[in-house]
Amino acid sequence: MIGIAVVLAVAIGAVAVSRVPRSGDAGSGLPQRFDYDLKTHKTIDPALILYRQAGELPLDLSASRAVAVGPEDRIYVAGDQKILVFDREGTRRSEIALESEPRCLAVGGAGNKEPGRIYVGMRDHVEVYGPDGTRQAVWERLGEKAVLTSIAVADSADEHDIFAADAGHRVVHRYDPSGKRLAEIGRRNREQKIRGFIIPSPYFDLAVTADGLLRVVNPGMHRIEAYTFDGHFEEPLVWGKASLEIEGFCGCCNPANMAAMPGGGYVTAEKGIPRVKIYGADGNFVGVVAGPDVLAPTATITEETREDHKLEVVDVAADSRGRILVLDPAARKVRIFVARNPQMETKS
Amino acid sequence: MASSSDKLDRRQFVGNGVRIAGAIGLGGFVGFLAGRRGSADDTVWQIDPNKCIACGNCATYCVLDESAAKCVHSYPMCGYCELCTGYFEPDPNDLNSGAENQLCPTGAIVRKFVEEPYHEYSIDEALCIGCAKCVKGCNAFGNGSLYMQVRHDRCLNCNECAIAVACPSQAFVRVPASNPYLLKHKGTGA
């Protein structure tokens, strides 16, 4: 009798345990139309993809932050506490050790008074290195609140100033080559119709374009703004719109990164849905360099909520030949893209 | 002067020693067990936001009709975006509070204008069902300031939490009742 009771109790227990949901796949219980699904927006029409990957540079960096192009199309990558320098063919030429973690960098171009001079943005200040990697200067610290996210160098015959985007203070700092801070650009000013930079997350990029203007991403406004070096806002030249459609910039705040193309035009990189795209000099959408199928290692990573599992944001640069360099921190490599149609490289 | 009969022989001495040591050991063991039980009672369930994958199970597995797990908001982390991807559908018709534009199935997020172009977002917990849809939206593009927490004014602190059993990422953990929330802070990534 006792034996039967024990067997019965064990059987009931086993059934009870087996009925406890352990897979946890019920979800919210809401109808499917309430699912948060970006699948349709992650699919890109193949006809719009105008570039193909032609090569890649593997990086021994655990946290790569920025990519830039210098004279003779040398490729500079900042990450960990160093800068890696590659020649245009992708052969690693040198490594520059830094004392702290870099966040952004720019290199004086061939037209610069000091070609090959490297400007490295740390969290709150700029450090300057010579082409041989020796540190030449450490510029003034910008305070606790400063978060430098991008640097650009003017390379025209008579302008060699340096511009640093500060996401913490939501302004662009203008420096002369000696490191003297000359001005702030982009602070909210109703009279000049400057709405100020809206920077919800620390992605705030800028570039000096061939027309001699400073182009600054206003990520919260989903647009690229134009300023003279003196800080005058060029309102008619503003472009960009918020949209999940391929022509627009997705999410709360994009593009995360941007670079100027050699013949005019822009290459942009978005976070959230990783998309690298080309726009013409007037801001018209031209095409796609790479989308989530290349830049997202898994289909669901774009919906990831865990900080240490999230997809890192890519940085972009373009060389004089129109090749697009995409720094892919997740894959620990720089992907090199070339136009499928060679005429594209000089047209955009 | 003690007589020879009062003296303990070796056998008695060892026996008494063993008995005293046993009593002390037993007392210590009972005390240890009592202490362990006390600390177990002083912990509560909580969601580790660094492990939560916003699967939505919190809405359906809680033994309460209305889940004790709710979305909460870290204001220091929030970008106060005009286009909040935790509030709006991925591709909204317009940036207003029209139901067709809202991501939340129950309209539990309140959008309040602060100054051009900033907006503040707060959770109406009475409406929140814990589906975590907004958490996904906020994390996909934004700073991840919306996240899930067990609200202890509702939680029954079940011995075996049904959500914890169903949680696919083991995000449900026991935390001290004296510090019952795992809050996200700006810059920590947590």
Describe the structure in your own words.
The complex is a heterodimer of chains A (348) and B (190). Chain A is mainly beta and 348 residues long. Chain A has a single domain (38-347), classed as TolB, C-terminal domain (Neuraminidase), CATH 2.120.10.30. Helices cover 9% and strands 33% of the residues of chain A. Chain A has helices at residues 2-19, 39-42, 292-295, 344-347; strands at 51-58, 64-69, 75-79, 82-86, 92-97, 104-107, 118-121, 126-129, 135-138, 148-153, 162-166, 171-175, 181-185, 206-208, 214-218, 223-227, 257-260, 266-270, 275-279, 285-290, 315-318, 324-328, 333-339. In chain A, the strands form six sheets. Chain A has a four-stranded antiparallel β-sheet with strand order 1-23-22-21, with no helix packed on it. Chain A is elongated, with a radius of gyration of 24 Å. The relative contact order of chain A is 0.13. Chain B is α+β, with helices and mostly antiparallel strands and 190 residues long. Chain B has one domain. Chain B has four helices and six strands; from the N terminus they run H-E-H-E-E-E-H-E-H-E. Chain B has helices at 10-41, 57-61, 133-141, 162-166; strands at residues 43-47, 69-73, 109-115, 118-123, 146-150, 172-176. In chain B, strands 1-6 form a two-stranded antiparallel sheet. In chain B, a hairpin with a 2-residue loop joins strand 3 (109-115) and strand 4. The radius of gyration of chain B is 27 Å and the shape is elongated. The model of chain B has no long low-confidence stretch (mean pLDDT 87). The chains are: A mainly beta (348), B alpha+beta (190). The interface between A and B is large, with 42 and 49 residues.
